[in-house]
Amino acid sequence: MISVEGLKVEFGVKPLFSDVSFVINERDRIALVGKNGAGKSTMLKILCGMQKPTDGVVAVPNDTTIGYLPQVMKLQDDTTVIDETRKAFSSVTKMRERVDALNRELSERTDYESDDYLKLVERFTAEHERYMMLGAESCEAELERTLMGLGFARTDFGRPTSEFSGGWRMRIELAKILLEKPDVLLLDEPTNHLDIESIQWLEQFLSQSAKAVVLVSHDRAFINNVTNRTLEISCGRVVDYKVKYDEYVKLRAERREQQLRAYENQQKEIADMKEFIERFRYKPTKAVQVQSRIKQLAKIVPIEIDEVDNSAMHLKFPPCLRSGDYPVICDGVRKDYGAHTVFDHVTLTIKRGEKVAFVGKNGEGKSTLVKCIMGEIPFTGSLKIGHNVQIGYFAQNQAQLLDESLTVFDTIDRVARGEIRLRIKNILGAFMFGGEASDKKVSVLSGGERSRLAMIRLLLEPVNLLILDEPTNHLDMQSKDVLKEAIKAFDGTAIIVSHDREFLDGLVTKVYEFGGGRVREHLGGIYDFLRERNIDSLDALAPSAGRQAEPAAAPAQQEKPAEAAKMDYAERKEAQKRIRKAERAVQESEARIGKMEARLKELDDILCRPENASDMALISEYTSVKRDLDAEVERWERLSEELESVSQ
C-alpha cells in the first residue's frame, strides 16, 4: 500500500535517519517505536505527505487514502459535535447529491427511447450502486456507534464543540478519521485523551475494522493488543521486527547483546591495528604492512549500538511523617452541578499505605472527587482527612505554577534533599531531561515537558498521601517504569487517576469504579477489575440502579396530588410562579457556570502551549474567570437552596 525507499531526513549536521526502506501492507498493524526525539512523529508526517524528506521516495498509489491523527491539531469551534463529525461523510454527501440530481433528471425527461436517456439510466445505476456499496444508508448509525464508543453520550451530540476541552475535541477528530475508513491509519499517541473503556473500544475497532495501521503510543497494553509488527527507529536506522511489542522487546535485547559483542570485537581489532601501526610506523621493512593496516582501518565501518539506557535507575521518595491509619474517609458524599448529580452516596475508606485507582469514563466524577478530597470545591456529606496527612497533588494545570526564570536542573535542585541531590542528573535523564535539556529554562518548555518536570518535583517532596491525576500522559515507557517503581516503593498512600492499564497493573490493590452517579469498590488489581467488569458490565448495572430508584420516587408522586388538593387555585398559581422564578434563576446561573468552565478549559489548553505559557494577559484572565466561577458556584448553591425551599 505504501512503499518507502532510501528515506533520509536531515535537520542539522547529523541526519535524523537515513537509508530507510520498508513497505506497509494491507492488514499490517505497526507500532512505530524509538526513544523521544528519534523521529517517530516526523516519520508519520512524511508518510501522510505533510513533510518532505531530504532524500528518498515515499510511493503511495493514487487510490490509497490516508488518515492522520497528530498529537496536536487545530480544532474547529463553530459547530455541534454531530455536525462536525458528519464532515467525515462529505464524499458520501456529494455522491448522494449527484444521485438525487440524476434521479430528478430521469423523472423530468420523457424521451425514454433516446440514446441520451439510456446513457443517463446507466449513469444513475452506476452512481447509485457505488453509493449503496459505500454503506451510505447506515452512516448515521455508524456515526453514533463511533461517538459513543469514544465516550460521548447521546446528549452530547447537539452540544457545541466549543463547550468541550481539547482532549474531547481530539476525540471528535479521531471519530472523523475512523469514519472516513482510510486505507492507512496513522495515529500519533491516540490514547492520551481516552479512558479505559474508550481505549478498549478503539483496540477492538483497529483490530477488526481498520485496513492498515501505523501508530505511536507509550501505552504498552494498547500496542500489544493492536499491533502485529514493530518498526524501531534507532541510531538513524529503521529495524523491522515482524512481531508484536512484547516479543520485539525480547528480540531487541538479543540483538543488542550481539551488537555489543560485535562492537567489542571490532574495538579490539581497531586497537590491535593501531598498536601495529604505532610500533612499526618508522621501520622501512614494515612499511607495506603499515600502509595496508592504515587502509584497512580507514575502511572499517563503526558498529553502532542501539540507543538504550540500561542503567539501573531507581527513584526513592524522601522519608515522610507517618499519617493516621485512615488518610481518607468518605461517608455519603454527594456532588451536584445544577440538576446534574455527578455522584451520590459515596462511602469509602482508604487505609494508610494503600495504592488505589480511580477509573471510569471521563466525566463520571474521578477528578471531581479528587477536588473534594483536596478541599477545592464544596460538596454534601462527610469527608474526613486523617491525622497528620500531607498531600502531594499532581494535576495538569500545576505545570503552569513552575518558576519560569529557573532552569530544569535548578527547579529540581531547590526541592531535592539529602543524598538524592547527588543523583539529580540521573533522575532528570530518566524523565527525558538528559544532557543539555537540564539547562533549559522552564519558560521555553512545551506543555508536556512542564508536566514531566512538575511530576519530578512532586516526587521529591516529603508527602504521605500522593494524588496523581493522569500522571503518565507525557511519559515514555522508561519514565513510566521509573515512576511506577517509585510509587510501589512509596511507604505512604497513593490515589491514582489513570487509564493506563499497564501502569496500574501490579501497582494498585483496590479499584474504585466511577459510573452512573455511583462509586463502586473492587478488591484486587486492575486486570482483576477488568475481568470482573466483562462479566458484570456498567450497562448491566445501570438498569438495576434505575429500578432501585423507582420505588423511592413513587410515594413522592402520590403525595403531590394530595398536597395540591389542599391548595386553592390562587395559592397554586402563586406557588408555581415562585417555583418558575427560582428555576429560571438556577438555570441562568448554571448557564453562566457552563460558559465560565468552558472558557477555563479553553484558557487551560492555550496556556499549555509553550508560546503562551508566560502570557500575563491570559494568566490574569484565567485567574479572574476562576474567581468569578467560584463566586457563581456559591450563588448557584444559594439559589438551589431557595428553589428547594419553595418547591416543598
From TrEMBL:
Residues 2-260, 328-541 form the ABC transporter domain. It holds the Pfam family ABC_tran. GO terms for molecular function: ATP binding; ATP hydrolysis activity. It comes from the Bacteria. Residues 548-559 have a biased composition (Low complexity). SUPFAM superfamilies: P-loop containing nucleoside triphosphate hydrolases. Residues 544-566 are annotated as: Disordered. PROSITE patterns: ABC_TRANSPORTER_1, ABC_TRANSPORTER_2. InterPro entries: AAA+_ATPase, ABC_tran_Xtn, ABC_transporter-like_ATP-bd, ABC_transporter-like_CS, ABCF_ATPase, P-loop_NTPase. Transmembrane segments: none annotated. Keywords: ATP-binding, Nucleotide-binding, Repeat. SMART domains: AAA (SM00382). Belongs to the ABC transporter superfamily. ABCF family. YbiT subfamily. PANTHER family: ABC TRANSPORTER ATP-BINDING SUBUNIT, DRUG RESISTANCE ABC TRANSPORTER,ATP-BINDING PROTEIN. This is Probable ATP-binding protein YbiT.
